[in-house]
Amino acid sequence: MVKGQEELVFLPLGGVGEIGMNAALYGFGPEKGRKWIMVDCGMGFASEEKMPGVDLMFPDLSFIEERRKDLLGIFITHAHEDHIGAISELWPRLKAPVYATRFAKNLLETRRLSEPGAPKVDLREVKPGRRVTVGPFELEYVPVSHSIPESNAIAIRTAAGLVLHTGDWKIDPTPVAGSVTSPEAFTALGDEGILAIVCDSTNVVREGFSPSEKTVAETLKTLIADAPHRVAVTTFASNVARIRAVAEAAVACGREVIAVGRAMDRVIDVARECGYLDGLPEFRRADSWKSLPRERVVALLTGSQGEPRAALARVSRRDHPDISLAPGDQVIFSSRAIPGNERDVGSIINDLIEQGVEVITDRTELVHVSGHPRRDEMVEMYRWTRPGTAIPVHGEALHLDEHARFARAQGVQNVVKARNGSLIRLSPGTPAVIDNVKAGRLFKDGDVLIDEKDRAIPERRKLMQAGLVSVAIAIDEDGVVLGEPAVDIIGLPNRGRSGEPLIETVVDAVSRTLSGMSRGKLKDSESVEKTVDRAVRTAANEVWGKKPACHVQVVEV
C-alpha cells in the first residue's frame, strides 16, 4: 500500500532533448523525505566550434548532490560512454554505490577508473535477470539487444507500481555477441501491469526493423575475403559484436587481426575476460603491421568518429608510427558519424582517398546497423508492455515529439513530454510534470569542471571569430602617459580592406585617444581602459569589418 503522502516521481537530468549525457532520477516517498535512485551517469562530446577548448560535457547533477544522503544507488544500463562516462568525474559528488553488470563494471574499471587520480568508486556487480532491492525500490535487470554486450532495461518496482526504463535497445534475434530482447520477458512485465514506460526515441523517425548484426557480419566477411590487399576496419571500440565479426571474417580467409588504439585494446581485454571472444586467436600488436604480407592483414582501428588523436586519423595524416596504407588497400567504416562529427569523418575519408585507398561506408554496403529500435520494433515493445503512460527519452526534440505521437497511436492513454529538469509525478494520479528543477551542463575544461554560466566559453568563441587586441599603457600619478603604449594583435589579418597595416590602425587609434584625454581623465584608470577599448574596436571595424575583443591594461606608475 502507498502511504498517504508518498509519491513516485521521475526526473531526467540528462539525455532528454539531446543525445548523450544520460542521467535519470527516480524518487519515492513524501516530498520532504524522498529516497532516490539514479539510472546511468553519462557524458557527451562537445563541439569544438560551439565550445572551443572543451572535449567533454557532463550533466549538472546539483539537484541530487544537494540530496545525496537520500541517493541509494546508481544503476547502469550498459557500458556506453553516454551512460557511464561521467561516473569517474561526478561520483565524488554523490558517493552512492554503483550497480552494473560484469562487462560494464570491468570496462568502467579499465577505461575510466584506472586513470591517475580516479576515485575509488563503490562498484557492485549485478547479474542480468536478477533483482536488487535498495530502500523502497526493487530493480530487475532485463537483458536487451544493443551494440554492446550486457545491455539491460531496468524494471523498477515500488509500492506505487512498476516503471520500465528501457535504456538503449533493439530487437535482434542474431546479435553475434550479447543478449536478445525477449518477447516473453517483456510480455510478462506487461501482464504484471506497467505504470509507465520510459523509452528510447533515437530511431523512432525510421520505418521498419533495424537489420541484424549477423547481416553486417556476413557483409564484412565477403568484403574481407574479396579484398586483394590490406583491410582496415574502423568501428566503435565498444562494439564487441563487430570486433568478433571482423575477427571471424579474418580467420575464415586466412588473415590475422591487428588491433590498433588504446580504447580498442581495453575493450578487447574486457571482452576476452568475459568470454565474448572465445574461440578466436589472440590479436596481433600494431608493430606486426610491416612484417605481415599485405594480403594477410586485417586491422581494427579506433577513430570512426574522426577523433584527431585516434589511430585512423593519424593513419590518414601519415603520421602513425606503425600503420600506413598504400594504394589498393581498403578502409571500411563500420560505423555512422554521430551528428556533429560529419566534417571530421569526411576529412579523414578524403585524405584516405587522396592516398589511393578504397573507402567503404554504409552508403554503399551494409557495414553498419544501429543499436536502437526503428518504428516496427517499437510497435512490438508497446504491444508487449501495454504501459499506462509513455515518457519519450534519449533523443533530440524531433525524436521526442515524434515518439509522443507514435505512443498515442499505439493506444497509450497518457503521454508526458519531458525535458531535462522536468519533475514528473508518476503516482498517485495521472502522470504529469509538476515542477521544473535546475538542469544543465558541466564542461571539462583542462582539469577543471565549469558550468554553462562560466565566461570562458563565450569569450573563446568571440576570440575565434574576431581575435584579440592587447594594449598596455603606463600612466603616472599626474596623468602623464609614459613612453609609447605596448600594442599587440592576435588573430587579426595583417591588413585592412584598403591594404593598410592593421597594427598601425590600432596604434594610431590608441595614440589619438590618449592625446584627446585630459590629465584628469587620464588619472582614472577605469575610464582610460573603457575609452581606449571603444576606440580600438571602432577603428578596427572601420578598416576590417569586425570588432575584435580588446584587453586594455593601465599600469599606474
TrEMBL record:
Pfam families hit by this protein: Lactamase_B (PF00753), RMMBL (PF07521), RNase_J_b_CASP (PF22505), RNase_J_C (PF17770)
Keyword Membrane found: no
Broadest EC class assigned to this enzyme: hydrolase
Domain Metallo-beta-lactamase: 20-220
Keywords: Exonuclease, Hydrolase, Metal-binding, Nuclease, RNA-binding, Zinc
Record carries keyword Zinc: yes
EC number assigned by the record: 3.1.-.-
InterPro entries with a match to the protein in the record: Metallo-B-lactamas, RibonucZ/Hydroxyglut_hydro, RMMBL, RNase_J_2, RNase_J_b_CASP, RNase_J_C
One function term, GO molecular function aspect: hydrolase activity
Descriptive protein name: Ribonuclease J
Lineage: Bacteria, Pseudomonadati, Pseudomonadota, Alphaproteobacteria, Hyphomicrobiales
